[in-house]
Amino acid sequence: MPQINKVVIIGAGPAGLAAALRLHDINNISVTIYEIREQPTHLGGAINIPANGLRLIDRLGVYESLLKGGSIIPQLVVHSINGNELGRLDYIAKIKAKTGYEFIRIKRTVVVDALLSEVQNRGIPIHFNKSLVAVDENAKTGATITFSDGSSDTADLLLGCDGIHSAVRKLHVDPKIRPEYSGVSSMSSIVPMPTELAGMHTTFTSQGSVVVVPCAENSQEKSLFWFLTRHIPEPDTADKRDGWNEHREKEVAGFKNTLEEVTSEVGGDWGSFLRAVVSKTDTVNFYPIYRLPHGGVWHTSRCVLIGDAAHAMQPHVGQGVSMALEDVFLLSRLLKKESSLQESLRQFETVRRPRIEEFASQAANNGNRARQKGPWQMAITEWGMWAWFRARRVFSSWSWGFREEEWTYDIDRVDIDYFDAL
Ligand SMILES: Cc1cc2nc3c(=O)[nH]c(=O)nc-3n(C[C@H](O)[C@H](O)[C@H](O)COP(=O)(O)OP(=O)(O)OC[C@H]3O[C@@H](n4cnc5c(N)ncnc54)[C@H](O)[C@@H]3O)c2cc1C
What we know:
Layout: E1 6-10, H1 14-25, E2 30-34, E3 46-49, H2 51-59, H3 63-69, E4 71-72, E5 75-79, E6 85-90, H4 93-99, E7 104-107, H5 108-121, E8 126-127, E9 132-138, E10 142-147, E11 152-155, E12 157-160, H6 167-173, E13 180-192, E14 200-205, E15 208-216, E16 223-231, H7 240-253, H8 255-264, H9 268-279, E17 285-291, E18 303-305, H10 308-311, H11 320-334, H12 341-368, H13 375-395, H14 404-408
Parallel strand pairs: 1-2, 1-12, 2-8, 5-14, 12-18
Antiparallel strand pairs: 3-7, 4-7, 5-6, 9-10, 10-11, 13-16, 13-17, 14-15, 15-16
Helix pairs in contact: 1-5, 1-11, 2-11, 8-9, 11-12
The chain binds flavin-adenine dinucleotide (FAD).
Flavin-adenine dinucleotide binds near residues 34 and 307.
């Protein structure tokens, strides 16, 4: 077994909290978590968790609380600009039959709260308000981290679970790689459910795509999450952060006009429904979508990045949390092997990179569909969607399940002994 007795985790998002639970329960390792925020954040919209992530959530012991707090999404429905239905796709029947799990949309905060309460139940130490300023690594003895308040800690292994703007990555593992703007930005809100709605509903308008989806049906407070994805150029300012802050203020102040303009294009009862959702919205979040480019270093001798810190992708494939969980489960198995830590970390990358890169590319393609369109492009997009749904209906009796292979994937079934024979 690699000589790992103590692990320090930076970041208390889904990756960090899940890693703490898994390493504590399965590997019996002493774990400590450090989080930069003063308390768990209440920011964030609603996220997807498909079957490949839900089975891991179940193994972590929080599946029941997530089912209670989220919405099962049985289908995807695409609407035309006239308000007609272009097609619908059963998301889960085949996948549920194979795995026992469905597909849920849930507030990010509910996921974080459920994981955090398990961490606290096990007595795993977690320290908030800790801003990392230095990482010092000795390949033989361990990694030492220092915080802005002067405190420090040393461990056999440092896990960077601190998201897309990871300090562990910037300070130590790969200072060169930078998040890049995807070209699209998102405006979103969670509103009380105006009327019963099943499934995830997408409408492509000339200005971007509008998605509405229940995200808390099973709880007492039924809620609907909507988001508008649009192409917005990166601000032309020396400091991008200042430019985005200025742009964000304008978007948030003028959100009613933007939404009324976008939804006014949509006809029929569906258009009226979208406008009712807009009228229930009091405030919005606006955020430019950044991602990490492919490549980049994921580990050194005694540090490894997981989740968004290693491979943040656009949200348009709904796999952010599930990829973080798969990282956690694979790493915890590899750390139990007889091989050296270096070998375990090398194998981790070998297994994870192809799957992550495939999802990241899909997410970028899906995000591109939200780009502004003229009348001809709109007609071609709608025709293409219509034809795709019809083709699927014809071929669905074959093995053509929607994302079947990707969503039935079980990271715990990856043969990690295979590498030893190479
Ligand atoms: C506030 C927030 C809102 C989000 N909203 C959405 C959303 O609406 N839709 C969506 O698809 N995805 C969203 N995401 C991303 C999504 O949660 C991630 O793709 C997924 O959860 C992967 O989890 P992660 O733990 O790797 O990263 P994250 O969820 O980003 O968690 C990283 C954690 O590390 C902490 N952290 C950051 N820097 C430091 C530091 N220097 N020291 C210590 N801790 C640090 C952060 O505060 C956070 O708790 C959001 C992320 C955040 C942080």
